[in-house]
Amino acid sequence: MPDVAAVVVTYNALPYVERTLESLERHETVVVDHGSADGTLELVRRRFPRVKLVEQENLGLAAGWNRGVRETSTPFVLILNADAWLVDDAADHLAAFAEQRERVGFVSPRLLNPDGTLQPSVRAFPTPWRLATEYLFLRKIAPRSRALNAFYGAGFRHDEVREIDFAKAAGFLLRRAAFDEVGAFDEEFFLFSEETDWCYRLREAGWQSFFYPGAEVVHVGGASWRAESATLFTEQVRGHLRFLAKHQGQKAADRGRRVLLAGLRLRSLVFRGERGDVYRNAADWLRSTR
Questions:
Q1: Do 184 and 59 belong together in one domain?
Q2: What is the pLDDT of residues 6-24, one digit of tens each?
């Protein structure tokens, strides 16, 4: 079985990080902490003395991943969210799958919600059109249409091995040789689209990304609209625009901006309460950064 190390980036990661690290006890693990003040550091030191704990300034998730990868030396590295945990020997299954395919640089497991239901994770690279199908509710009009659902994997059932554009980064395996060739995660993406950008660069360099349902990870995720959701959602929008500008040019980014603004205005009218406020704040940010 190939060697796999694990990297977990934490920032006020209670209450889930304990279960995360319990699922990694068979693997060399690095925790990169970005300034937790909720007891995360104390828990890691007390409960998991074998874990390598690295503290650094919070420069974003990509910076944490990069630091963690560089603290390891194994041929494969598992990146795992602090609110996600492995099911059984998922890391070994991912690595065994990748080892059989020389040009596979990224492998995504099947994600599950805590209740055991599927958490769809396969995505297509953003384009202005694909963003329109999501933010303007176009995919709701024809949920079986591939053209209107490409952004979310065109209805992929997540039950078979498949080459993909990318997948949600709650948990994934990367090959160190691909990381060394393609380069580190772009730290200009502070919290969202880091994996999207890296998988795009991976493909451009002749590597492949795969979805592999033979390994499973449970992911809690952000299910509620909390006060901090406005900042997080704005970062998601910012990530879309940066990806478009970097890989498709400023004209595509400008089209994407118009699509997103229209979609956020629409959503702020459709949804009430805190959720509507999140969309309204993101629209205000878009207008202010023209």
A1: yes
A2: 999 999 999 999 999 999 9
Q: Are residues 134 and 83 in the same domain?
A: no
Q: Give CA 87 to chain center in angstroms.
A: 18
Nearest to residue 61, comparing CAs of 7, 127, 123, 5?
Answer: 7
Contacts of 59 (CB under 8 A, 6+ apart): 34, 187, 190
Residues 6+ apart with CB under 8 A from 272: none
Examine the domain organization and report whether 206 and 235 are in the same domain.
no
Same-domain check for residues 141 and 266: yes
39 and 83 inside one domain: yes
Instruction: Inform me whether the pLDDT recorded for 227 exceeds 80.
Output: no
What is the H or E stretch that residue 276 is in? helix 273-288
CA distances from 55 to 8, 22, 33, 216, 271 (A): 12, 20, 5, 29, 39
Please choose, from the candidates 14, 17, 76, the residue with its C-alpha nearest in 3D space to the C-alpha of residue 51: 17
Shared-domain flag, residues 43 and 134:
no
Can you give the pLDDT at residue 289? 82
Whole domain around residue 278: which residue ranges? 126-152+224-290
Tell which of 219, 250, 268 closes a domain. 219
Q: Kindly state the tokens that stand for 200.
A: 């795009």
Residue 155 pLDDT more than 80? no
**Is the confidence at residue 249, as pLDDT, over 50?**
yes
Mean pLDDT, residues 226-247: 87
Q: How many domains does the chain have?
A: 2
Q: To the nearest whole number, what is the mean pLDDT of the chain? A: 93
Handedness of CA 74, 190, 156, 154 (dihedral sign): negative
Residue 223, pLDDT above cutoff 60: no
What is this structure's pTM?
A: 0.93
